[in-house]
Amino acid sequence: MNTPFNNFRTHSATCGQWLMKNLNLNLDLKDVSLLSFGEIVCLTSHSTFNFNILYTFSEALIVLQLTNNLPKVVMKNMCIQSSEGLYENNGYRYRFRLMFNAALYCPVEVSVDNHKLLVIGSESSYFEPIEVDSFIINGGERYDFVIEANQAPGNYWMRFRGMGDCHKTEESSGKAVEAHAEAVLHYDDAAVNTTLPDGIPTYEEGYASGVLFNPVQETKPDYLANRTIIRVSDLTNIDTDSAMNVSGDPDKTVYLGFDFKSYDSLEIPGPYPQVNNVTFKYPSVPLLTQRNLISSEMFCPNIQAESSDCYDEFCNCPYVIEFDLGDLVEIVLVDTSVIRDQDHPFHMHGYHFHVVAMEPLEEEEEGPVTVGRVKEMNDNGAIHKNLETAPLKDTISVPMRGYTVIRFIADNPGYWFFHCHISNHAELGMGVVLKVGGHDEMVSIPSDFPQCGNWKWTYHEEAAGSRSYGSLLALLLCLSLLEKLLYTINLKILEFCFLNAINITLNSEIFKMLHYVTNLG
Question: What is the rounded CA–CA span in Å between residue 353 and residue 436?
Fold first, then answer.
């Protein structure tokens, strides 16, 4: 890639979602693999890039280490005290690579006391750097940012505070949920002691005024007070090697409407997160590698946004949208829900795309936000699109009761899942499959490639080994505990329940039970 990112070492940060409290663990720093859930881990990367204008080469190891259950970032201090007692801007600059996965809707706002954040890239590409006071990362997103050690040597709070379902009041108990976590940004200086920064960190203190990048839930009252916002669509792409020519009229435009719907006819009525009123059903075979077993009857009919199909009845089928190889594709994502204030993070497999437009919409006198209203705006040229320098992403938040427009060239043949990256939304069927090209244009399947299909539990299998029965009991035990323990349980327990305690296929029915018991949707 021809970018100014060569020959300089960088440092990586991995952010896993927490639910409630950090684990009370005393771990050796070599054992960071154990922190995949519930903690924030920062590792040194061996990758080499050169962005010497923005950040400095440093041999220092950066680790968010556990100190009294509190992660700490150690930063080498190169600030020089002048005769006037001020600290000059001569500090090292540290690049962080932050990624976030979401089990429920919990975007995270990131800020560091007394420090600006220089955001320089996202997922697989770079954009013109922006200096912000804070930014928000949603499920499936990855961002690169730079912190400069240009403040007086000391200790500073590095703040991570949850939004959405991590900041609300429970209807049943009236209990406030304000999930937040902190790390200590510590200047590695002989004069700096190891005490914590002043004060006890609170959720409200994590509110950073000034410039906010990648906002969510923009239309909520007082959310943007004392803030200037920068949306993803405001960015300018500088990754020219990966950029696509997305100007001109698209070969195919698709509208995908997001909503939550309930069905009284079902044993578990919902609400279900859906795309175009369809709950995606995972097919019985892998579509790409066993396409010889696919028939058109397996898929949903040709369902369009706001059509009468599936409006009143529960449609549960593999939802596949077809494109010709080489098509210039425009997808318009519209959130229409009035019962959930959520910016769904949609992730596309097999591609990245240009984010050419996005905007939250105010409700008009005639009614709520609809796909039809956005389609009319698009047809009339009322949506301003950046078709020349739009940023590249593979995951994008769709503003609640608003729209996002993406474009890409369909040059990678195959079947590609396009889904909400909130785990329970994906398992409950909020996604579609994009089919690009014909089967003869897709990659050849090796003759000895393993095949698979639906797994069915039989008594014969149970008699041969008793673990399945015990595993089912373990799963039911986990589910029975969830309602009481939801606000004290850590994702480590969920990981045990769903990865270790069961040896059955994790499918939509299990997550539907989880959704029903805990109302995580």
Answer: 15
Q: Which two tokens stand for residue 340?
A: 């959930």
CB 320 within 8 A of CB 281: no
H-helix or E-strand containing 163?
A: none
Q: pLDDT tens digit string along 298-318?
A: 898 778 877 777 877 899 999
Question: At residue 70, does pLDDT exceed 50?
Answer: no
Please give the structure tokens belonging to residue 375: 């389609």
Of the candidates 236, 244, 110, the residue with the CA atom closest to the CA atom of residue 185: 110
pLDDT tier for residue 194 given thresholds of 50, 70 and 90: low
**Residues recorded for the chain:** 521
Residue 181 lies in a domain: yes
Task: Say how many domains are in the chain.
Answer: 3
Question: Residue 379 CB: number of other CB atoms within 10 A?
Answer: 10
Residue 509 has pLDDT above 90, yes or no: no
Q: Are residues 197 and 146 in the same domain?
A: yes
pTM above 0.85, yes or no: no
The token pair that represents 164 in the structure block: 């959405």
- Contact between residue 328 and residue 397 where contact means Cβ atoms under 8 Å apart: no
Beta strands in 123-175 (DSSP E): 125-132, 134-137, 142-148, 155-162, 167-169
Q: Are residues 281 and 409 in the same domain?
A: yes
Which H/E stretch holds residue 360? strand 353-360
d(CA 512, CA 506) in angstroms, rounded, equals 11
Domain for residue 408, yes or no?
yes
CA 143, CA 125: separation in Å to the nearest integer?
A: 10
Strand order from edge to edge, sheet including 65-67? 65-67, 70-76, 180-188, 155-162, 108-112, 134-137, 210-213, 227-230
Q: Which domain holds residue 471?
A: 459-504
- Whether 467 and 434 map to the same domain: the answer is no
Provide the 3-class DSSP secondary structure of residue 133.
coil
Whole-angstrom distance, CA of residue 417 vs CA of residue 398: 17
Q: Give the integer Cα–Cα distance in Å for 263 and 81.
A: 67
